[in-house]
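subagent[fold] <- orchestrator: predict structure for attached chain, return tokens only, no commentary.
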Amino acid sequence: MSLAALEAEIVSCRLCPRLVAWREEVARTKRAAHAHEHYWGRPVPSFGDPAARVLVLGLAPAAHGGNRTGRIFTGDRSGDWLFAALWRAGLANQPESRSREDGLRLRDCYVTAAVRCAPPDNRPLPEERDRCAPYLIRELELLDSVRVIVCLGGFAWDAALRTRAALGQPTPRPKPRFGHGAELAAERWPLLGCYHPSQQNTFTGRLTEEMIDQVMARARELAEL
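subagent[fold] -> orchestrator:
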């Protein structure tokens, strides 16, 4: 299977009734600021360089971000922070992403999520996480140049551990804990922890530009870029 075929399968997925209902309801009612726009309202595909050495893993699309634009992390405040950091690290050709047609290109980087539909309150249920897990497993199998996974938040960290285990990379015991700057060394798919660039973290100063830049610089080192 190719990445394009997997993307087509993801975009047509309806396995989680709660998420299907929520993403479509948001797309119908919209937010006032985007009332004139057409919302994507489907599972959001991943995005980036198929030859990427750096994989950035998030939680799920935002209701009025990726669920609106159809591109992961595009059109919300978290994406503003992420793509600006990727640009400063030399992994993107521009520092912002507003729509799928804005010319953004990633270099040696691929951005994906543990859950592909926007969940209510940004909280997928365990069974929704598990139904989506095979997509990430198959994605990582196809992205055979990946040398490091940057995990944005604890949910992504746990998803990465589960994905590696499914692909034959056992999780050490005791289980490695997530933290900003945490590292799990491995011959394949080492992990790097980074606080999620949510407004809750960036507005409070829990995550600063310097902090996310340090993680991206370390990701480049591990990927030998």
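orchestrator: received. Logging for downstream: The longest helix spans residues 126-142. The helical segments are 3-11, 17-29, 66-69, 77-88, 126-142, 154-166, 199-202, 209-223.
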